[in-house]
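A common beginner's mistake is to predict each chain separately and then try to dock the pieces by hand. The better habit, illustrated here, is to supply every component at once so that their relative placement is modeled jointly.
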Amino acid sequence: MSFSIGSAGSAMGPRSVMQDFGREAGGQAFNARIFRRLLGFLTPHWPRMLAALILMLISSMLALTTPYLIKIAIDEHIVAGNADALFYTAMLMALVFVALYATTAVQQYLLSFVGLRILTSLRARLFQHLQVLPVSYHHAHIVGVTISRVIGDVAVINDLLSSGVATIIGDTVVLAGIVLVMLSLNVQLALSAFAVLPLMLLATWLFSRRARIAFRQTRQRLAAVVGGLAEDISGIRVIQAFAREGVSATRFEEVNRANRDANIDAMSLSFIFLPTVDFLGILATAIVLWAGGLAVARGDMTLGTVVAFLAYVSRFFQPIQDLSQMYTMMQSAIAGGERVLEMLDTRPEIYDEPAAIDMPSIAGRVELRQISFSYQPDAPVLHDVNLVIEAGQTVALVGPTGAGKTTIANLVARLYDVTAGAVIIDGLDVRLVTQRSLRRQMGLVPQDPFLFTGSIADNIRFSAPEISMQKVEEAARAANAHDFISALPKGYATRILEGGVNLSLGQRQLICIARAILANPRILILDEATASVDTLTEGLIQEALQKLLVGRTAIVVAHRLSTIRNADQICVVQAGGIIERGTHDELLENGGLYRELYQRQ
Amino acid sequence: MTSKRMSGIQVLARCFGYLRPYRRITIAAYLALIAVNVVTLTIPQFIRWIVDHGIGRQDAGLVKTSVLGLLVLALIKGIISYFQGCWTETASQNVACDLRNAIHGQLARLSFSYHDRSETGQLLTRAIQDVERIRFITGRAFLRIADGVVLAIGTTLMLLLINPLLAILAMSTMPLLVWRAMSLGQRLRPMSLVIQKQLGKLTTRLEQNLRGVRIVKAFAQEDAEIARFARENRRWFSLSALTARLQAFNGPQIDLIANLGTVIVIGYGGYLVISRVLTLGELVAFATYLGQLTVPVRRLGNIVPAVALAVTAGERVFEILDAICEVKDLPGASPLPAVRGEVCFEQVSFGYTHGHRILQELSFCVEPGQIIALLGTTGSGKSTIINLIPRFYDPTVGRVLIDGHDIRQVTLASLRDQVGTVLQETTLFATTIRENILFGKPGAGEAEMIAAARAAQAHDFICEMPLGYETVVGERGVTLSGGQKQRVAIARTLLRDPRILILDDATASVDTATEQLIQIALESLMAGRTCFVIAQRLSTLRKADRIFILDRGQIVAQGKHDELILSCGLYADLYQQQAKVSAL
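With all components supplied together, the output reads:
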């Protein structure tokens, strides 16, 4: 229940449990190169880090002083019966404790602050970098994984850089200090107390190996519980419709029990480990008492020394425990760091040329000149495609799934770069202009009507966040969306939930169209939706689309043939090439694949 | 909504009630706790004994025996601690397991109206995180509280025994310590919640950006997105930095207070030793006791907020468990006998929310084996009608009768066993295709299952997969296309062989060949059953025995296609529109 800075935490709820599934601390050997690069993130903060380190050294020293002061108090003042000196020593101790407090607090704050700074700037850098990476990158990476990089891995790196590095240095210093003081107080007694050390190391090593496996097991079992429950909740209607509540309960009880048992097993390990550590601590105390006691009895040692020893011994084990945990933390931080650096090192395949100019105002003539394209080197998707679209024309692409229709549309918006050939808009190769100036004049209505969480208004004015509500309403009216939006209790301020679940598919499509209308693009890419919506909404959508197409160059990826009858040009795409082109009537007359498709429907 | 206002104590009591089946090990754990504390309190006395009598009087033999005794005590403590830990953990893990089973069972029982209102994420958070919080409090957390209290009382007694005045002086820092620890916990808790929420926002921004990457790029909004992310990122930073400062300057305060207590003990205690009121061993024991006390006290500061958290968690969990199941078996409900298939609505009205009626005094009767097509715009009441037949909801007014039985008078299981549904969103479970089909009828044989798959036109594509019927579908397995999923769902229902069938004949757009396969599958599914179809296809409309045209919760016209197309203007319009869309 303790609060920790920067860790991903449970804010993401069960989803993060699912994402953690399969992510391991990685048994990789220590990677010095990665570690050095990670340390590099500390460089800009070196004054604060240096201050923190100095304070840490001071506080470690102070912490070591106090048992020694107690020894003096006992041996020199109490046994000697010097009350005044005792009073001064006590005051000195109080002062040391106050100074210890101040140095600890400031040092802790400095370290946290630096850590948070690094974390924040690293996240910002990653986010910016993600914006530069092309669609192809995002296509190849699962969203959940990317999120766990930016949120989770970065936090682990932060743990290492701020508290980790500091703890390692601090603990080592404290440990060395204790060892030195103990040795200087009494070599023999010190060495006999150290005899417990190998046992402690052995116990820690045995435990951490098993614990890692056991806790990994609990994470997997919990993920199974979350998964099972999530599935049953989303399938609850089917379960009830089939009256199968009993079956699903039995299934759930099974994963639930497995989770319980894995947890009990894992915790049992700690219940062996913690008392063992406790016992070893007392063992060290016992050794000091035994050997020290006998030495005092012989008159070889003062009682104060034994008491000071007892205090040092009790402080001795904490840093060792911390350091052994540090090792695990380092491992996972290095693994996380490797993944984060890999992401930062990814060069975008699509970038603005140094000499790129801003795209002038687009008239709308689009030419695909002998373009070829492949997502993977040996699997060409398009080869040698030629197509000219005059300004203001609508071109419809039809054909079977996987033929390359959507790819053509993506290339025009330069979401991908052609492998060979050129996409030319108003006589300019799209690779010679800046991406922003090009895309500012383009619009996209996606196949899956994606909306961002946020208000409906914000979604419509996505391309121009500052625009007036009046313009938003105009766009919505033109998209036939105004009526249903104003019928909602909160109208344009209605918040769209994740996945747009609070709106119907058709309504989401209408908002996507409004968004494109407001952007007022010169070139429009329209990927027709595939899922079916009710008849009435379908009519509204078609009407809105017709309005949107007027006066713009449009590329329509068509899945049904109703929109495209009026297209200026219809291209039948098959196996990476355009095999037929012409108007609806021409194509019907020619009697090719188009007519076949048309008649089949 | 009945037990809405339970007091915090009541909620906690109810949480602890779940320990009842495990009361033996729980009691054992608490007894063990007392034993451990007795040992813990004895150890400093032992050390004192060794210092005063062994070392002080230079009695080597006594030192040896007492050190051995110390080790034995430590060993006993370790062994008892182990059992104590295991017992508590077992009990509390069982509490969590039982609670999760109870939640799962309750969710499976709760009617559609409940699930309409609830969000999956919310329910999951309650079943996972909130249950975890309850587990923590019923297990280790409460044990630690008890531990702290027992140890504090024991230590106070011991200290008082050694020297009352010094004890009072030394303990004078305790209230301060407890107060600081608690107030720090109280201040950090809400802040850490705010920070977690902010991190959630940050995550959502990122997730949205990643999911909508094509839109972001196509509308050239990268800069705006970066600015939005930076805003949330900065907010997270300033919240976190504030908390870090709070923690850095307040956390070590607790150590400072405890340390000042030690100074008092050494200063005043040393003075007492000099004055021969106290022995040196007693002083050392005193310091040791005081040191032992700071850890549990500091822990207490962390755990107290967990109690508050567990109360809210408990409230949310019990809200699910106490939710009233609107559709359930009446006492004395009898099983529905084998159904012929007559379905009648008698003056049925229905509203999802109070006041707003979706169905208005609807009455009709359907003969066994008839195919009824439901046609109407969104919100006209089509889906409500089909939801009332398997009793997913109960009518607000009026009755639904099957073969003359009021469906509220029969058991839910016997009713739903004989009513099959195939809905537009096909839900398959993340398991093998075989198990998905057998979901319709778990005891069915191999031949029966394959026959169903064949009739659903699914057998061929299933056999083409390398693992055939053993193919695992869903998130961790093969992704089926919309058309394939639909056919598996049809096979599932076919295997069940219901007398009454409820069906949404929409298909996600699929290629023409698949479309035809689904058509065939649907036809074999409908044959010989009473069917209610939300019609999206012209073929269904033409084939239906009766078409109900719905408008604002009422049947405004009904009849066969041939009659309606001539007599009903609304039908002709709807039909035309449908024709236009599907004739793509």
